[in-house]
Amino acid sequence: MTSQTTVHPDRPRIPSPDQIRRAPKVLLHDHLDGGLRPGTIVDLAREQGYTNLPETDPDKLGVWFRDAADSGSLERYLETFAHTCAVMQTKEALFRVAAECAEDLAEDGVVYAEIRYAPEQHLEKGLSLEEVVEAVNEGFREGERRAKENGHRIRVGALLTAMRHAARALEIAELANRYRDSGVVGFDIAGAEAGFPPTRHLDAFEYLKRENNHFTIHAGEAFGLPSIWQALQWCGADRLGHGVRIIDDIEVDKEDGTVRLGRLASYVRDKRIPLEMCPSSNLQTGAAGSLAEHPIGLLRELRFRITVNTDNRLMSGTSMSREFALLVETFGYTLTDLEWFTVNALKSAFIPFDERLAMINDVVKPRYAELRSEWLFR
Ligand SMILES: O=c1[nH]cnc2c1ncn2[C@@H]1O[C@H](CO)[C@@H](O)[C@H]1O
Ligand SMILES: [Zn+2]
């Protein structure tokens, strides 16, 4: 594990909650329809006449989402999105949700985020795919503006998701390509994994490759190695959403602790394939038993390209700061470890190389260095 070079009695090893919040953070895997403020859902439901909410008190509704998502199965976890998608069917609603998303992330110290959603799930009241994308983009720009007024800096890019059980992936990939210079930075597929292999959408991935565009694939969450293998070797994914099951291709000798990587795990590590890990979400869907047993601990030690993410802030009642704090508590990570995750995320982001480099060198590194030096001036 990364450690500090010198030991001084006054130098704290463990970052404080306040330092974690102030540390610049980068988020690559967060669903727009999984991050609404409970109060906003209640408002939007009232405005739009949606009467199926399980609770109308915002606090109780927040608790309901966390409990309902705590199901141990990805399929049941995904059922909760019916309520958020139901209230995200107008331009105004999409704009508001996107603006608040950017504001909330900025407030939490996130400086760069790629937020995903499935445009095909927002057409129930007659919006076109283009109108959905434009409303969300405008919302993100508004959120960035509001954040700036409050003294925060954040940039948000959109990832367009196609649902793996549906048959619109090529159409959504074309949409992502059309908006690539206006707010959309890539493509993804999501939804139930078992029974819906990524190769069903090969035409979409091949199209994006021919267009020199970027995509990530949810793989190795509810289903194991074959899903990861297909996502990489058939579909050509740039990153893996979750990818936790790569652990199934790693053997640790119980006697002497020697580690052996299989061919696929070696490939993922050698090629520096980014893993978008979402610890709290994995506990809820049963992809991991406990945080202490979560594969992120070993994968980080083995120096896979690990990134830390929220997945669904509403369903997991979480934030980037909370995910970092949980990891600090469980694995004893230092500011240097948190910086490593953050730099990994920027290296893996879908924005141009020069922008990523400037974010790393001019935003992330100086601020972590500053945080690390705070103990000197107390
Ligand atoms: O962890 C996940 N695994 C797979 N699919 C997911 C996960 N979280 C959310 N979604 C799905 O992605 C859609 C678009 O944002 C959501 O509506 C939800 O169905
Ligand atoms: Zn996800």
Describe this structure in words.
It is a single chain. By secondary structure, the chain is of the alpha/beta class. It has one domain: Metal-dependent hydrolases (TIM Barrel), CATH 3.20.20.140. It is 47% helix and 14% strand. The chain has 17 helices and ten strands. An eight-stranded parallel sheet has the order 1-2-3-4-5-6-9-10. A two-stranded antiparallel ribbon has the order 7-8. Strand 3, helix 8 and strand 4 form a beta-alpha-beta unit. Helix 2 crosses helix 3, helix 6 packs parallel to helix 7 and helix 16 runs antiparallel to helix 17. The protein starts with 16 loop residues before the first helix and ends in a 6-residue tail after the last helix. The mean pLDDT is 96. Inosine binds next to helix 4, helix 5 and strand 2.
Show the helix and strand layout.
Blueprint: H1 17-22, E1 25-31, H2 38-48, H3 58-69, H4 74-79, H5 81-86, H6 91-107, E2 110-117, H7 129-149, E3 155-163, H8 169-178, E4 184-190, H9 202-210, E5 215-219, H10 225-234, E6 239-242, E7 250-252, E8 259-261, H11 263-270, E9 275-277, H12 279-285, H13 296-301, E10 306-308, H14 313-316, H15 320-331, H16 335-348, H17 353-372
Parallel strand pairs: 1-2, 2-3, 3-4, 4-5, 5-6, 6-9, 9-10
Antiparallel strand pairs: 7-8
Helix pairs in contact: 2-3, 6-7, 8-9, 16-17
Binding site for Zn(2+): 29, 31, 218, 311
Domain Adenosine deaminase: 24-365
Family: Belongs to the metallo-dependent hydrolases superfamily. Adenosine and AMP deaminases family. Adenosine deaminase subfamily.
